[in-house]
């Protein structure tokens, strides 16, 4: 039942946390024409959703990267914020 999906998901996430796992989220913005302010606002919104829905403790975010780009190459050359 779709109405119970979030509750069941969060119950499973909490069970993992109780077993000692740390839940980490990842948010990524694709390359695009948005301003830096818009990009940052959208990443923060994604982070809020990860905290609220997936109950994450930490979030790693990529400001501007391709989906097929290796994780260790994302956003490395410049610090935008």
Are there runs of 5+ residues with pLDDT below 50, and where? none
Percent range for β-strand residues: 5-15%
What is the N-to-C order of secondary-structure elements (H for helix, E for strand)? HEHE
Q: Enumerate how many helices there are, as a single number.
A: 2
Q: What is the CA-CA span between the terminal residues?
A: 42 Å
Q: Strand arrangement, largest sheet? A: 1-2
Number of strands: 2
Q: Share of helix among residues?
A: 40-55%
The overall average pLDDT, rounded, is: 87
Report on the architecture of this protein.
It is a single chain. A two-stranded parallel sheet has the order 1-2. The protein has helices spanning 5-18, 36-54; strands at 24-28, 58-62. The model has no long low-confidence stretch (mean pLDDT 87). The chain is of the alpha+beta class.
């Amino acid at each position: 039942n779709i109405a119970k999906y979030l509750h069941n998901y969060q119950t499973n996430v909490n069970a993992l946390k109780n077993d000692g796992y740390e839940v980490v989220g990842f948010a990524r913005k694709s390359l695009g024409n948005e301003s830096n302010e818009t990009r940052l606002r959208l990443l923060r919104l994604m982070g809020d959703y990860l905290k609220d829905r997936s109950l994450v403790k930490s979030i790693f975010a990529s400001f501007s990267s391709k989906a097929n780009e290796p994780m260790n190459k994302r956003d490395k050359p410049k610090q935008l914020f």
